[in-house]
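Async update (no meeting this week)

Hi team, since we skipped the sync, here's where things stand on the single-chain job. The sequence we agreed to prioritize is pasted below, unchanged from the tracker. I ran it this morning and attached the output directly underneath so nobody has to dig for it. Comments welcome in thread, and please keep replies under the output.
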Amino acid sequence: MKVSTDSILLGALCEANNAKHILDIGTGCGILSLMMAQKSKAIITAIDVDGASIEEANDNFKRSSWYDRLQAIKVDLGTFSEQSSITYDLIVTNPPYFDQSVTSPDRRRNVARNANLLTFETLAAIVKRLLAPNGDFWIVLPVSEFQKFSLTATYHLFSCLQRINICHHADEFPVLVVSHWRHTTNESVHRIRTMAVYDRENQFSEDFKAATSDFYPQF
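Output:
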């Protein structure tokens, strides 16, 4: 599975803080888990319904410096939530969000893109169950899907603490949203900011470089 800019931005912007247990939902090749391992000392569990992705993720984990803190499991989110004996300080996901009509010759990419396999209602309800009382939930979505997810998350008593709008260039409309959620609290802070991936010369912007420099040595 290819590493997407969506996952890179989510992993770079997500605040791992002092999390002891992290869950990566729909891990794919394991990129988010690896980024969280680099940013924290947490024990990280990665799940995915695709067996080949789990093999790939575990292989990538074995090649990393944090192998003893990483585990990838082939399981659907519903089954995992029923079996989990712990709650998580941090949950991250780059979930499927494309309609079923959008297809690719690659079956694995179709599975990863098919929103019918994991609805926002199911995702929000299960995250609510698995997230520790003061835990943090980070997700990346296209702008249109973020609006839909916001309604569902709010219904399940989540508050959005941060929203980072991602656009290709500074003078363009956002295409992605990286957002940070927590169980409803008394916090009134809802920070909104915008990041452009490219500058006027179509080179990576200074903001993008600053956010991802820990993961891209050339920055």
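Quick observations from my side:
The mean pLDDT is 89.
Helices lie at 5-13, 31-39, 51-62, 77-83, 107-113, 120-130, 143-155, 206-212.
Reply here if anything looks off.
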